[in-house]
Design a protein that fits this description.
The chain is of the alpha/beta class and 488 residues long. 26% of the residues lie in helices and 30% in strands. The radius of gyration is 24 Å and the shape is globular. Helix 2 runs antiparallel to helix 9 (283-291) and helix 10 (321-334) crosses helix 13. The protein has helices at 2-17, 43-52, 70-74, 78-87, 102-112, 169-181, 208-213, 276-279, 283-291, 321-334, 357-363, 377-385, 462-473; strands at residues 19-27, 57-61, 91-92, 117-118, 122-124, 134-135, 137-142, 145-152, 164-166, 187-192, 220-223, 229-235, 238-243, 249-258, 264-273, 300-304, 338-342, 353-356, 369-376, 394-397, 400-406, 409-417, 420-421, 427-433, 455-461, 484-487. The protein contains 13 helices and 26 strands.
Length: 488
């Protein structure tokens, strides 16, 4: 028995001698958050992790880098690209928010990139060919290990596109994979701006099918879009990794290949929190990032006596104080009975203390205009029921909601307006922003009433209403939650 154990130990030791280790770092949905929030995150912290980690490495991104803060918004994504260039990103794919500045904003970003944009399913609408600086894949040599990276863009841009079109991602992957395999890479990875676990956008995720349809042919999938953190999720021998959002973390994936045959052996992921106290900041990158900061946004325009969070403290409540404040501002401006604020438009908490314009752009960078229209009780119930679980996608002003969660399904749903329970035949003047009513992302339920006439209200967007509200109601206190209550 002892001899057998000794032989096994020797065998494993020898096997270890022939394993080569390669490091891949991954980010996604950075949304222009160049600087730390609460002493966490930012490009300078990421740069320090890269500098002090294994060398060489591969640095990849899954898209949505172009909008989300004042710096990203005002430069139409160019400053984001400049920082990614500075850090030496080797590839990225295209997210839905890369279209926030319409078709006219896409080409300048592509031209500014000093690394390839990988999107096998993204083509020019007229020619059917890939746009300049866009490739279906790239093969990188990382210390002798050939890593093929295939990109798949998100096919649902935030703004409708005429210049570009999207091929179905799995169809595009099926087409390009044989070409990649013919070059005999040691590792095949896919970067995609879609999520393995998307509970927000009303679409059935296809990402899992990459492992199911191409079993053994794709070793790694790096996802994004839903702002999830996924580590060491293995499906049919494929490792899935997602890194959250706002550059709060970076995923470090360690890949082992056989040193003799070059074949893929295994991979594991590790989430590294970019806590400044632990990882530090690279001085040069910090100075460069600060040089990109938008001027004139640091003036104090209001004050918060307490923190207004996106997430409520009471686990039974599904409406956070900050979103309640924003929804109330929307109803006040539109003069509607009910106003719905899509929670995804609010990006970060409003911290206690002085409030600047920079803070408000970080919270809501989109400044979508507002509309009002008439809905009936039947549609209201449909909207609420289909956007409550696993997390509420909307916060309402003028309406309260109670329900039970029974095995992931909404039960005993009740809606109340002015203290009266909503009936199917009741009608209400309803307000929201002009982004969701087109059916974009979490707005998909509004496709049900796409022919209902919509009236634009004024010229002010949600960002402007937020700034005016802060000035009007300072010092701010957190509104009481409990408009959406889940009962056991």
């Amino acid at each position: 028995m002892k001899k057998l154990l000794l032989v096994l130990v020797l065998l494993f030791s020898v096997a270890g001698l022939f394993a080569k280790t390669t490091t891949i770092y991954h980010t996604s949905d950075t949304h222009g958050f160049y600087y730390p929030k609460d002493n966490r995150g930012g490009f300078a912290a990421l740069a320090n992790v890269l500098k002090n980690g294994p060398q060489p490495y591969l640095l990849l991104d899954s898209g949505d880098f172009s909008n989300g803060t004042a710096e990203a918004k005002n430069s139409k994504g160019i400053k984001s690209v400049q920082l990614m260039n500075k850090l030496g990103y080797q590839a990225s794919t295209i997210g839905n928010h890369e279209f926030d500045f319409y078709d006219a904003g896409v080409e300048p970003m592509l031209k500014a990139m000093e690394f390839p944009v990988l999107a096998a399913n993204f083509v020019d609408a007229k020619t059917g060919k890939l746009p300049p600086n866009v490739k279906p894949y790239e093969i990188f040599d990382v210390d002798g290990v050939k890593i093929a990276v295939i990109g798949l863009a998100n096919a649902h841009p935030t703004r409708a596109t005429k210049q570009y079109k999207f091929i179905k991602p799995l169809k595009a992957l099926k087409k390009v994979l044989p070409e990649v395999e013919a070059q005999h890479p040691n590792v095949v990875a896919v970067i995609v701006h879609d999520s393995l676990q998307d509970d927000k956008h009303g679409m059935k995720p296809y990402v899992k099918q990459i492992a199911q349809k191409f079993k053994g042919r794709v070793n790694l999938v790096f996802g994004g879009h839903a702002h999830k953190i996924i580590q060491n999720e293995i499906i049919k021998d494929t490792l899935f990794t997602e890194s959250g959002c706002y550059l709060q973390n970076v995923s470090k994936v360690t890949v082992e290949t056989d040193d003799q045959t070059g074949k893929f052996v295994s991979a594991k992921s590790e989430l590294i929190a970019l806590n400044i106290a632990q990882v530090g900041e690279d001085k040069e990158v910090k100075e460069y990032a600060l040089s990109l900061m938008e001027p004139g946004l640091g003036e104090e325009i209001g004050y918060a006596s307490e923190k207004l969070t996106l997430v409520p403290e009471n686990p039974q409540h599904k409406d956070g104080p900050l979103n309640i404040f924003i929804a109330d501002l929307g109803r006040e401006y539109t003069g509607t009975q009910i106003f719905a604020h899509n929670n995804g438009a609010s990006r970060v908490d409003l911290e206690k203390g002085k409030i600047t314009r920079h803070d408000l752009v970080d919270i809501n960078p989109f400044d979508n205009k507002v509309v009002r229209f008439t809905v009936d009780g039947k549609f209201l119930k449909f909207l609420v029921e289909h956007t409550l679980l696993p997390r509420s996608l909307y916060t309402y002003s003028g309406m309260t909601i109670t329900y039970r969660n029974h095995k992931g399904k909404v039960k005993d749903l009740k809606l109340f307006v002015d203290g009266k329970e909503v009936q199917d035949t009741d009608t209400f003047i309803f307000g929201t922003n002009d982004y969701v009513i087109t059916g974009n992302m979490e707005g998909w339920p509004f496709l049900r009433i796409k022919d209902t006439p919509k009236e634009k209200v004024g010229d002010k967007g949600m960002g402007t209403l937020l700034e005016e509200g802060v000035k009007k109601y300072s010092p701010l206190t957190a509104p009481t939650t409990g408009r959406i209550v889940e009962y056991k």
